[in-house]
Amino acid sequence: MQNDRTTNDYLAHLFAQANRKLNMQLHSEGVPLEQWRVLSVLFESHGMTMRELADAVSTNRPTMTKIVDRLVADALAYRVLDPQDRRKVRIFLSDQGKALYRKQSKLVYSHQENVESNFGSEQTERLKSMLEEFLTRL
User: Fold this and answer.
1) I need a labelling partner for 84 at 20 to 30 A (CA). Which of 5, 69, 103, 115 fits?
2) What is the pLDDT of residue 78?
3) Is 22 exposed, middle or buried (0-12, 13-18, 19+ CB in 10 A)?
């Protein structure tokens, strides 16, 4: 059986393209999307282990280690031994990391506002709900 679908008929491809556009915009300002997602999760937490962080950002631990190593090298985050379990290390945002997160968030929110202005709040919320349901069912 022949498949007559084009690449744009696949949700995964469209998700990747949308993700890539936002990533290009953020990267031009100095932080790739993957790093912004980590900054965002850390901004909303009181320190996380690598496992917690990888789960929250939906990435594997080796990739998370590379991202965190980069954030630490750039003085955007720092590591602290967990006082309850010294085998664990917790990751925190530095003040510089918090400032960068706030700056980059303006770009992300601007992107969100652009989507809403083009499609309307109702359609945007419906798309988000559909995607959340799609992810829940997987």
Assistant:
1) 69
2) 97
3) middle
